[in-house]
Amino acid sequence: MEKETLCTANLALRAAFSRRVRLPSAGRRFMAEKLYFDVRYHGGLISATANGILGFFTAPDFKSRIAAWIEPGVTGIHIDLKALTHIDSAGIAVLLQTVRSCADQQIDFKLLNPPPALRTIFEKSGLTASLG
């Protein structure tokens, strides 16, 4: 009987703990935010303006959109970053991957109006040719 009471108490404690543990409000806010693109096509050149957050939750979407844009006939992809509200290490990593991927496929990839911190990272990485 004692063992059963302890198990019941343990389950009740776990249930109470799981109800109290939640992501901080800032974490939920970032999960809900999106990354939007205003895209224009000019022959083989794709020009896009990125709006929103480029981070952990939106980097996979960014990567898949770029992959969808890379097709025969595309000669360049220019992305304006002036409307980004936040960029984190995951966002920077996906940008670096995109630069390399486009270079491998001989597509001119440019980042326009990058934030100063991003410009510094690209300069230290030897990727300043990607900055417009």
Describe the structure using short key phrases.
alpha/beta, 4-stranded mixed beta sheet, 4 strands, 27% strand
Characterise this structure.
This protein is α/β, with parallel strands linked by helices and 132 residues long. The protein has a single domain, classed as STAS domain (Transcription Regulator spoIIAA). It contains five helices and four strands. A four-stranded mixed sheet has the order 1-2-3-4, with helices on one face. Helix 4 links the parallel strand 3 and strand 4. The protein is globular, with a radius of gyration of 22 Å.
Please describe the topology of this protein.
Blueprint: H1 2-20, H2 25-32, E1 35-42, E2 45-54, H3 59-69, E3 76-87, H4 89-104, E4 108-112, H5 116-124
Parallel strand pairs: 2-3, 3-4
Antiparallel strand pairs: 1-2
Helix pairs in contact: 3-4
Briefly characterize the structure.
This protein has 132 residues and is an alpha/beta fold.
Counting DSSP E segments of at least 2 residues, the number of strands comes to 4
Strand % is 25-35%
Report the structural category: alpha/beta
CATH topology: Transcription Regulator spoIIAA
Outline, from the CA principal axes? globular
Distance between the termini: 73 Å
Strand order of the largest sheet: 1-2-3-4
The oligomerization state is single chain
Order of helices and strands: HHEEHEHEH
The number of domains: 1
Average pLDDT figure: 78
